Prior knowledge:
Helix content is 57%, strand content 0%. The chain is an all-alpha fold. Helix 11 runs antiparallel to helix 12. It is globular, with a radius of gyration of 21 Å.
Amino acid sequence: MQPDTFAGMAAPRSPAPWHRRPRTNGQPGPSGFVVDATHARTAAAVRRALRKSASRARAKASALFFKAGKGGYGEGDVFIGVTVPHQRRVARRFRDLPLEEAEHLLTSRTHEERLTGLLILVDRFNRSTDANDRRAIFDLYVRRLKHVNNWDLVDTSAGSIVGGWLSGKPKTLLDALASSDNVWARRVAMLATFHDIKRGDHQAAIRMARRLVDDPHDMIRKAVGWMLREVGKRASPDALDGFLAAHAATMPRTTLRYAIERLPAGRRRHWLGRRDSLRTSGGHRGRSRGR
Length: 291
């Protein structure tokens, strides 16, 4: 089954009421937003709230930062120039947005709308104690995974939604994602393990790191190194040492540097020396050339 076409449950309409009484007189509410009572819980209202702080200069800078130009990893992405803090405020304001409205945001061509939609979904997933509601959010996320298509979108959501739902369950979906041709699906596979890492469980992270350690894409190399670093910091220093003992000599230098960033200086020199000595001796594997 392809990750981007994962069949999900029908999204139930949230019964939760709007958490603040909206202003209907066109005046700003407590958070500075003018709320239209007729459309207070719609994707259109979220779009209006975001565009109130849009900036052409920021949009241009964001497009450069997220490599939205031709040939970049974010090629074709559209920005309107809204800061992340403002997106978080909008997400809090619309935290009870129905799932079908959040889906409209997630499938938008505008980056900030997708991120705001994901912030709403993550907040709802983390707050919910209803397994059916959490399953509906997870299914929506996986069904629309092709729209989670830049590193900030993945990093904001994969650990909470994918990792949170799969915690304590079989993780075969992560293997399917790790095998995808889509770089962001592979990053989801790696970042989803952050949920368990934070709870002291390194098993899924080490397994995904083994699968992805030789990935050619820089966004995956950084993700693998980052999660390995977190394994050493939060879950099991021994597991990190064991992985490095097996892979430090041949893994991409970017991945290795991320993985050992929090180690004492002497240990960092040790692992870098293992890699450099093998390359100097000519014993490195061909697949590591050019890294």
